[in-house]
Design a protein that fits this description.
The complex is a heterodimer. By secondary structure, chain A is mainly β. Chain A is built from no helices and eleven strands.
Amino acid sequence: DAGITQSPRHKVTETGTPVTLRCHQTENHRYMYWYRQDPGHGLRLIHYSYGVKDTDKGEVSDGYSVSRSKTEDFLLTLESATSSQTSVYFCAISGSGMETQYFGPGTRLLVL
Amino acid sequence: GESVGLHLPTLSVQEGDNSIINCAYSNSASDYFIWYKQESGKGPQFIIDIRSNMDKRQGQRVTVLLNKTVKHLSLQIAATQPGDSAVYFCAEVGAGNKLTFGGGTRVLVKP
């Protein structure tokens, strides 16, 4: 998985609780991304980062926030989890410019 | 467990035959395309990419063809093996290196 780890790999939480997912890379890549994958919707971009402290929204950013305080870590936070955020979350990385994105192993999140 | 769509188009292919997976993309301004393979319970894995100034690119047992006129991309897998069973996604790369994924095709290899 191209030097990308995600934690936790599985999580069950209750509606209304905060949840933070972590993506860690050892490739020193500039770009990092968070996607969610749901049946019938494929992979959809939540947020991405193009450098430390530089982030932007994707197509499904409502209810999510991100932070990137160092090159190797990109955090995704659900401030108050809802059942509609039950999904599999993937982190991806790429170098600068038009380069291939490499994906992590995913985090399976269940919000009850 | 399976993390991708339950109603994906499915291609059943006999082991040893060639597979062709098709993808239509939406943005005529996209100039970079990627094919990914996703096995059950894993993240998408890069297979091959192609830039819009090319119409064909070959890798190991895989070939990607790009037809910009009709906005169509295909992935050909030669001598399909059981390990090729997976869901295959095409993706087009837009501004800010953002990927837009196609819906995916499930490939089932029959022994």
